[in-house]
From TrEMBL:
Residues 52-72 are annotated as: Disordered. CDD domains: IHF_B. Belongs to the bacterial histone-like protein family. It holds the Pfam family Bac_DNA_binding. It comes from the Bacteria. GO terms for molecular function: DNA binding; structural constituent of chromatin. Keywords: DNA-binding. InterPro entries: Hist_DNA-bd, Histone-like_DNA-bd_CS, IHF-like_DNA-bd_dom_sf. SUPFAM superfamilies: IHF-like DNA-binding proteins. It comes from Comamonas serinivorans. GO terms for cellular component: cytosol. This is Integration host factor subunit beta.
Length: 97
């Protein structure tokens, strides 16, 4: 599902929302989540999962073209951990297929 699919599904589910209103709602939610993660905050959506920022330590890597050793700097990356309800829903759907 893409962002535009999500907007269309939201507009179809709620008759009072136009596609434009649904697009603004999705953009607002995603922007708020991005801003919170950029500030290092944790986002928890009960029944769905949690988003957090994890730290990847610096490490030694290799340039695949030359084989030369390259130092890879430390990074902060987003991490998603699915909630129990989401894990069970996905698992039960794969059993039914």
């Amino acid at each position: 599902m893409t962002r535009s699919d999500l907007v269309e599904a939201l507009a179809a589910r709620f008759d009072q929302l136009t596609v434009r209103d649904a697009e603004v709602a999705v953009k607002t939610i995603l922007d708020a989540m991005s801003d919170a993660l950029a500030r290092g905050h944790r986002i928890e959506i009960r029944g769905f999962g949690s988003f957090s920022v994890t730290r990847r330590p610096p490490r030694q890597g290799r340039n695949p073209a030359t084989g030369q050793a390259v130092q890879i700097p430390e990074k902060r990356v987003p991490h998603f951990k699915p909630g129990k309800a989401l894990r069970e829903a996905v698992d039960s759907r794969t059993d039914a297929e």
